[in-house]
Structures are given as C-alpha cells and as structure tokens.
Amino acid sequence: MRIKDALNEHQLVERIMPVLQKNLNENMINRVLYIPVGECRGVSRAGYWSPSQMRLFVNTSLHGEPWKNVFLHELAHCIATHKYALCGMRVKAHGYEWRVIMMHLGLRPERCTNAEESAQLHVNDKHHYTCQTCNYVIKKPRRNDRLLSDLVRHKGCRYKVGGGKLTYYYAP
Ligand SMILES: [Zn+2]
Ligand SMILES: [Zn+2]
C-alpha cells in the first residue's frame, strides 16, 4: 500500500490533499503519495516514520479510527521531513513545525498516542501476572512463566511484606 492508496481507502483525500498543497510543492506531493505504508508488529510502537527508509509504518493491530490517527501522526512527520529536513533545515520530531502540520491535518498535536490507541495495541496482552502484594497487573502478549520464579517480583513491592510475588492469570 502507498500513501495515496491509504488516503483513498480511508476517505481522506479531500481532507489531506489541501494540507499537502499548503505545505509542499507539486514534486514533493507526488513523491509523498508514492511512499509505502508498511506494518509494524508487537506492542512497543503504534507506528513510526522512517526518513532513512522513506517509509511509514502503522501497527498491524490497529484498525478504523485508531489506525487513521496513527497514520496521520506519522504522515505529519513525513510532511515535516519533506518540508524542512530535505531542504537542510533541522527541526525537532515533535516540535513547533510538526505541531503546526498536525493542526493543518485537523488533529490535536499530541506527542503520545492516545489511550484508545494504546488500548487497541494491547488487546493481545492476554497473559496477566498479578502482584500478590498490591494486585498490580503486568500484562504480556505471551505466557512468560519466568515471571513466576521466586527471583522475579513486582518491582514496586519487592521490599514490602509479601514481597510482590506474581501469580499467573489467563485473560482471553
Ligand atoms: Zn511522532
Ligand atoms: Zn505490587
């Protein structure tokens, strides 16, 4: 999938084309529209923009609105790269220039992915390890019984009475 396909598929053409025109020249717009949209996996990142690969990534676990939000966040980085970095201007990743582009895109210029996105990202974390001392739950995408060994404790409770020993619970 290219950026132009993603815009079509998510009915973003009318909303995004004016933003591209506002920020980039025609050559740059054509280049941006053909940038590949890749998929990243796991729970660490909702998405990212790689200026060295000239490729944008969105996490495979995201769909619908959360997908769109992450895609547009990364698109704002991509636009900033073309508008500033490729012309030799150094700008901060989530600095003023990026925030202005986010507002052009009609989004709040928030640095972190919102709770909805991270909730979506963690739907596969079905293996829960509960602290016996404070009931804090550590969630993992895979079963990891090393966490049940006597050596591993909930960090916040390891020096308290009870010691933060973890118990396993499967939460499908
Ligand atoms: Zn970012
Ligand atoms: Zn604890």
Description:
The protein is of the alpha+beta class. The chain folds into two domains: 117 residues, Zincin-like; 44 residues, no CATH class. It has six helices and six strands. The strands form two sheets. A three-stranded mixed sheet has the order 1-3-2. Helix 4 crosses helix 5. The longest helix has 20 residues. The chain is elongated.
Which features characterize this protein?
3-stranded antiparallel sheet; 16% strand; Zincin-like; 6 strands; 3-stranded mixed sheet; binds zinc ion; 172 residues
Helix content: 25-40%
Q: Span from first to last CA?
A: 32 Å
Q: Biggest sheet: strands, sense, closure?
A: 3 strands, mixed
Q: Helix- and strand-based class?
A: alpha+beta
Overall 3D shape = elongated
CATH architecture of the largest domain: 2-Layer Sandwich
- Return the domain count: 2
What's the gyration radius in Å? 21 Å
Average pLDDT level: 87
Which CATH C-level class of the largest domain is it? Alpha Beta
Brief account:
The chain is α+β, with helices and mostly antiparallel strands and 172 residues long.
